[in-house]
């Protein structure tokens, strides 16, 4: 199973919305014999006729209600119906099947109009926009709608990019509410996007402009990329931009959780928050060695550590270890709120700062009444100079004794943070600055348990480096990988897509390779990448996975790297689930 463990190949036969070649027209593939043979004049006429059917249905329904409605209500409905008779542009509504669902729209529109309530209520200025949104998100345009789309708002960052423009239209065809984040809302940008898309002005490099953009959003698709190879631009868009948006979405989710009294599905479980000297109670500093050595006895006070609350308001665990094979650690027995257990969560997230050392996070699991039966599980974590969030899934913990069973979070009762000099790596520092890897400083802000999630919160379109000019490839990849790393550490459910060189051609034409390991060598169409972004939103197998994707290619004999795991030419075309099910999580 050499190939199955590494990658997968699928043939995605798309439906009528799968391939969009530019921002102004649709290229239908799976229904080609029905729709692409229509001349443009026929499409326009059918669009006009279908629109009239919708308006006429509303009018007919109004006439049947004349015996029960007052005169003022009839005048209100006439005025509202007249306002709705302005036909929508071909750019905004897919004319295919518009008349097919006119009855469905009529029932929904009439329900909304009937809900206006009081006779004295005046006509709303945004009634036309409400009907337009209904036609696009809930009506005939949405014959490819998927469950949950109507209740999901997606923020598309980089909505005017090659991939972003296609993503926006695919989302609309499936019934999502779409918001687009752009730096400037000039006429050129507005004309690129459908009228029903809510345009938000902001800069991913400026956190203050992102708060309003994420309000009401459930998910984010990040398609933005720096337009130049200048280090500042790469850092601002590909690294800091991702970090700023993840923090903005988390802050918004936390605010919702507070309003819902902590009962939101996004609510984290607070295990420790270090905001005062009293919050340090129960934490114990210990030291020890992995083995005894005669050389160790030559060191006097070879290691030391302390945990204190400073005047600056920080909880600091610091010290040094000079003893060969020595370590120091900070440990506490967990006390969970009544009714809570860690098996309902998928991992831990730590907000920490310091001098960039790595640590060993140890969980002790077993019967709390008899700690002699407890087992130890460890995971290595790395920090950065300054503050950062470290995400550690429970699946990353390994038993200290290889024969022990995998970690059961339900039985966890003690947590330990250990520092040891071995395996420490120098961090980036000013030229000439000396680093003593045997000393450490760890500032603790909080430790929380991450709720178990089924779906992706943040889809990031990164790159493999193929197709990038060799002179700027290293800079681009460094910024991209830093952005990916910040997303993995954020605690959000993520999907990171690294496509091969992008090509401007219809999607759904060729088989795709899904791989992990930087081995792909082919390109892929923008439409296929956009389709993967949209499918990943509600696919549980895509959560917390990073993968490369490209067109199928013929490998040399004896060096095959993939195998066919799905060939799905049906309408649902759910190729992503079997393709990603064989790939590893949290990589």
Automatic annotation (TrEMBL):
Gene3D superfamilies cross-referenced by the UniProt entry: NAD(P)-binding Rossmann-like Domain
All copies of domain NADH:ubiquinone oxidoreductase intermediate-associated protein, residue ranges: 305-400
Ranges annotated as biased composition (Basic and acidic residues): 62-81
UniProt superkingdom: Eukaryota
UniProt cross-references to SUPFAM superfamilies, sorted A to Z: Galactose-binding domain-like (SSF49785), NAD(P)-binding Rossmann-fold domains (SSF51735)
Domain annotation NAD(P)-binding: ranges: 158-252, 457-539
Region Disordered: start-end pairs: 1-23, 62-86
Compositionally biased intervals (Low complexity): 1-19
Name by which UniProt lists this protein: High chlorophyll fluorescence phenotype 173 protein
């Amino acid at each position: 199973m050499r190939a199955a463990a590494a990658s997968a190949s699928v043939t995605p036969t798309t439906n009528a919305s799968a391939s969009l070649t530019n921002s102004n027209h649709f290229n239908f593939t799976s229904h080609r014999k029905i729709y692409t043979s229509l001349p443009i004049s026929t499409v326009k006429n059918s669009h006009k006729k279908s629109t009239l059917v919708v308006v006429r249905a509303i009018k007919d329904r109004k006439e049947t209600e004349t015996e029960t409605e007052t005169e003022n209500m009839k005048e209100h409905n006439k005025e509202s119906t007249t306002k709705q008779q302005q036909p929508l542009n071909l750019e905004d509504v897919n004319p295919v099947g518009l008349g097919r669902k006119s009855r469905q729209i009529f029932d929904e529109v009439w329900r909304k109009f009937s809900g206006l309530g009081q006779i004295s209520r005046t006509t709303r200025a945004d009634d036309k926009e409400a009907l337009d949104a209904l036609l696009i998100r809930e009506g005939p345009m949405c014959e490819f709608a998927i469950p949950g789309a109507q209740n999901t708002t997606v923020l598309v960052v980089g909505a005017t990019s090659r991939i972003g423009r296609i993503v926006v239209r695919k989302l609309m065809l499936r019934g999502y509410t779409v918001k687009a984040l752009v730096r400037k809302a000039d006429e050129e940008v507005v004309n690129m996007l459908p009228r029903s898309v809510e345009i938000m002005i902001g800069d991913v490099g400026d956190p203050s402009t992102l708060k309003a953009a994420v309000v009401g959003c459930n998910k984010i698709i990040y398609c933005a990329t720096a337009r130049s190879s200048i280090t500042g631009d790469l850092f601002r868009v590909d690294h800091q931009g991702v970090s700023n948006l993840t923090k903005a979405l988390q802050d918004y989710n936390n605010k919702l959780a507070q309003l819902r009294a902590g009962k939101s599905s996004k609510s984290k479980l607070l295990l420790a928050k270090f905001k005062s000297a009293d919050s340090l109670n129960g934490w114990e500093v210990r030291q020890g060695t992995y083995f005894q050595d005669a050389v160790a006895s030559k060191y006097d006070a070879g290691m030391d550590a302390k945990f204190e609350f400073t005047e600056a308001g920080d909880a600091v665990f610091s010290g040094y270890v000079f003893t060969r094979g020595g370590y120091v650690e900070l440990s506490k027995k967990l006390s969970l709120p009544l009714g809570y257990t860690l098996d309902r969560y998928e991992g831990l997230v730590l907000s920490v700062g310091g001098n960039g050392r790595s640590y060993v996070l140890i969980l002790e699991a077993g019967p709390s009444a008899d700690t002699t039966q407890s087992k130890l599980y460890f995971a290595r974590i790395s920090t950065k100079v300054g503050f950062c969030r470290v995400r550690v899934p429970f699946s990353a913990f390994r038993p200290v004794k290889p024969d022990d069973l995998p970690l059961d979070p339900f039985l966890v009762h003690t947590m330990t943070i250990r520092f040891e000099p071995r395996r420490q790596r120098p961090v980036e520092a000013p030229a000439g600055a000396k680093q003593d890897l045997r000393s450490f400083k760890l500032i603790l802000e909080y430790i929380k348990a991450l709720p178990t999630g089924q779906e992706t919160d943040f889809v990031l379109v990164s790159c493999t480096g193929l197709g990038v000019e060799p002179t700027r490839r290293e800079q681009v990849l460094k910024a991209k990988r830093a952005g990916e790393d910040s997303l993995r550490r954020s605690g959000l459910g993520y999907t990171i897509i690294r496509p091969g060189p992008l090509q401007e051609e219809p999607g759904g034409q060729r088989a795709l390779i899904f791989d992990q390991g930087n081995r792909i060598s082919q390109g892929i169409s923008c439409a296929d990448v956009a389709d993967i972004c949209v499918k990943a939103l509600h696919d549980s197998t895509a959560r917390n996975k990073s993968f490369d994707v490209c067109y199928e290619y013929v490998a040399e004999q004896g060096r095959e790297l993939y195998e066919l795991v799905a060939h799905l030419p049906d309408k649902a075309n759910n190729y992503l689930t079997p393709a990603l099910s064989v790939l590893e999580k949290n990589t």
